[in-house]
Amino acid sequence: MGSNELRLRDNWQTFSGELSAIAEQDVLSVFNILFKKTDYRIIKEPKDFLHVYEKWPLSSYEKKQIYNPDKPYKHGFRPDYAIENIKTKKTIYLEVKRQDGWVEGKEPSAGRGNAHERLCKYFTPGLMKILSEKSKIAGSLPFWVVFVGDITRDPKRVREITCWFDKFTDHFLFWRNNDHNALCNHFIKRITPLLD
Question: What is the pLDDT of residues 149-159, one digit of tens each?
């Protein structure tokens, strides 16, 4: 176990009470505490991809077929967070998806939201290439998704999401009950090896 991982574990144990005291434990709060005095940092809404689409090259034929405004415009996206290992310069992009779901006392239609479907853009060949180059993570997905809310217990959505990620089970977490131990443990065991 490396010294960075030991510091993460120490922070996790040392600040456990502080983490429990957070009124609404959210991902940013948990990681700001976990990353104290480590080589990791979390960036809210990183601006790395704000211009990705506007600069995407098109054939001359396509350019002639579309509206080409005279004014510059911004067209891209922002992940919810980026987690960077400051030493290795490796980064993983993090999406937090909160959604209702079909659970006890609710109808199956309670899980009809599409927050989970909006993350599918990350699986597209073009964005996978862009994210992989920027993240410096090779041979794996350059993103991680934390699901929050009833979606984490919805039998339809849990199976759907598990199917999408297939063998890449390290890249998603059903964060139930805002259990900071589960979030920290998942990060330390499954995400830090990608960033080291």
Answer: 899 999 999 99
Q: Dihedral sign, CA of 54, 48, 91, 19?
A: negative
Angstrom distance (rounded) from CA 36 to CA 17: 15
Regarding pTM above 0.70, the answer is yes
Classify strands 172-175 and 143-148 as parallel, antiparallel or unpaired: parallel
Phi, psi (deg, nearest 5) at residue 83: -115, 120
137 backbone φψ class: left, alpha, beta (φ>0; ψ -120 to 50) = beta
Q: Which domains does the chain have, with CATH numbers?
A: 3-98+119-151+163-195 (3.40.580.10)
Instruction: Give phi and psi for 161, each to the nearest 5.
Output: -65, -45
